[in-house]
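Example record

Each entry pairs one chain with its bound ligand, adenosine-5'-diphosphate.
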Amino acid sequence: MMRRIAILSSGGDAPGINPCIRAAVRTALDMGVEVIGIQEGFDGLVRGEMIPLKARDVGGILQRGGTFLRTARCPEFLEVKTQRKALRELNESDIDGLIVIGGDGSLRGAHALAILGFPVVGAPASIDNDIWGTDMSIGVDTAINTIMHAIDKLRDTASSHERAFLIETMGRNCGYLALNAGVVCGAEMILIPEKEVSMEEIVQMVAGAYDRGKSHCIIVVAEGSSLKVHDVAEYLRINEVGFETRVTILGHIPRGGSPSAFDRMLATRMGVKAVEVLKAGETDLMIGLSGRDIITVPLIDVVKQSRKPNLELLDMARTLAK
Ligand code: ADP
Ligand code: F6P
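Structure tokens for the complex follow.
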């Protein structure tokens, strides 16, 4: 019997976590299930940082980026003794089930608790879109749009000054953000960890763009790329490719911002589904998007692999940037 559930956000935050929390809370309350908010991820869980959540507590957060429950990283949670402490906190608070909203690391933490026998369901939230089992994670669409608007602005000044801009995006070891932003911004080159490129190839491409009379050159670089933006910029300077070069590192900007309509819908549907799955007595599952459908995926399958970007987009981007 699921009388009281808890919800937490963990790891890197992402736009859309608040709509997910809001949907889960109001769905649970509508089912007569109490809701406890756990503050600051697994770190807060082991410290017993818990607050009751009512319908009004999740008002006015649908449009807000970040997570009002806050998040944290908790390296100690990789240890079973810390996971067992978390279980004690949950059981002593008469909590019957847990929803974990977070990235691949957080979902590993969720799986660890499920293995110890506690009912847990995960919702994928990470701008990296590296979580296996779902077409999109919460936050990705907002992040892509944030990056796109930033690169559009940089293209304006790059054209005015006839410059080559190297723009670094987040994504940890996944090139999804750089790849998709590069395509939708018409970047001349995209550097991602999944496909290595030599410095010589970059020089040839940039010099070729200059010789073809392009007014600018945009190179989007995933932070996980083996070639780093400042090194590439310096190499281009030394090889006198025609353009002056400049570097912009977008850093955490795509991590914030008001969730897009897509992310609000995705997060809302996932929050509702997470409560329905827990209430139905299921556990050790992640909520995912498959096409138009909201599905469930065993966490054991999620945590043993990561989602890879579609490398066909790289060839398409190069052709279209000619
Ligand atoms: P994200 O969830 O955004 O990928 P992290 O990789 O930092 O962020 O993971 C968030 C938290 O999840 C970690 O700080 C840790 O508390 C927990 N976690 C990560 N990996 C594991 C694991 N293998 N086992 C248990 N807990 C984990
Ligand atoms: O996983 C999301 C992410 O933004 C990665 O793209 C990035 O490498 C990492 O988090 C940054 O972590 P932090 O916010 O702890 O600096």
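Residues 140-161 form the longest helix (22 residues).
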